[in-house]
Please model this.
Amino acid sequence: MYFSVNVTTFLDTNAIIWGEKKAVVFPKKGEEYTYRDLLSLTNSAANGLKELGAKKGDRIGISLDNSPEFLIGYFAIWRIGAICVPINPNFKKEELLSILRDAEVSLFITNREVHDRIADEIEDITVVTSFSKLLKNKKEFQAENCSLNDVCSIQYTSGTTTTPKGAMLTHGNWLAAIENEIWVLQLSEEDVYLGFYPMFHVGLSWGIAALKAGATFVIMDRFELEEYLELAEKYKATVLAGMPPVIHRLVNSPPGIEEKLRYAKVIISGGGPLAESIWKKFDERFKIPVANAYGLSETIVVGTATSTTPRLPYTLNFKSVGVPIGYTEVKIVDENDPSKELKPGEIGEVALRGPGVAKGYWKRDEESKKVFLPDGWFLTGDMGYLDERGLLYITDRKKDMIIMSGWKIYPTEVENVILQHPEVKDTAVFAREDEMRGEIPVAVVVLKEGSNVSKEEIIAFCRERLANYKVPRDVIFADSIPRVHGWKLLRRLLREKYAKGS
Model:
């Protein structure tokens, strides 16, 4: 049976109910848009995309800074039944091209700076660098008829190699995520959401959930503490975007800022572990409940995952990532045998099942089969346990992924860049704990005999070839790197030996 749906149809309803209410505010440029404006601009952009030849099922890339244009572009792509491919505008040339080629993007919405970075390589792709050119046709546009199982976005998440994987997210996945996030935050038309999560990330879903509920979405282009506090007070923000580094900054800020957050009823945390000590201090000082969310790109955050919630205080023990949300199922399985379910208190791999789980990885059938199981369970690669009440705790990661301030960094990708340096013989990248950012990437480097390269030179070499968040925050020079039989890297020993530096 074909279940008709298009995520953007909530815009039509909201334009009727809350037509003149503020939907989106962009303080950086002094812009405000009502719900009627949001629908009108989305329709105009949809018309513009169609006039450029875009059609249902096409992959359309979008790479912009946080802005109303990014949000409207996202909606317009969905509205015509196409597939949105969001890309970090800070990516270097090869990173950008890798995703554009893998997704077989035919149209690319971006800015001049990003376009100039790759212009000589994408002559076959239609590029839009002036968003206003998409907005000339102001006719109404009826959302394309899609099904729950139709893919509407491909979210790239780096793999353990240099080749990124694109999680295929459907209209049904997004509907689940939006409704679940409304439930977690208890959103309504009375709320104001202050958001700074990068719009090329699934964290955008929190803002879309706010809009679905009829709330106002105040967009920050990036997090800056003073501006964050000023906007929270000015717009009477009731829901705050957050993450461990942000909560850390708030806890360690001078007295008196509590008043600026007096309207807040909840702050979101996710993207990495929130230290128990920091969480307790935040609770004691600000008295604002934390929605400590656990999720992945493959589940659109809590589309199928867990969270603590303001309305369920028993989850607030400063350690747990909460209970299953919506129609989510969670279990812990043996990391070597996913058919074996573990008992409460036993640590194993976290498995999730529910309506937010991605359809699989784009053009990666074999990799999909390894983690998207036939019975609907998704193997997350994260290690954790359930307690007797069913609360989930994350303890470690099965893979060697590093999470710094919510950004996922894969050591192999960074190592492959460092190995390109002509003076480097061997290298290994590992995670060092950092109270503010959760973890930071650190590189151990073995130089070729007679070389005299400095730490700063290695970091500069990486910065030229990697997005800034992937660049090692420290470099340690060593004579050798621990390996089993000369090849299998023992990152655990590196973490233990260099936990506090060289």
In short: Residues 4-326 form a domain with the Rossmann fold fold (CATH 3.40.50.12780).
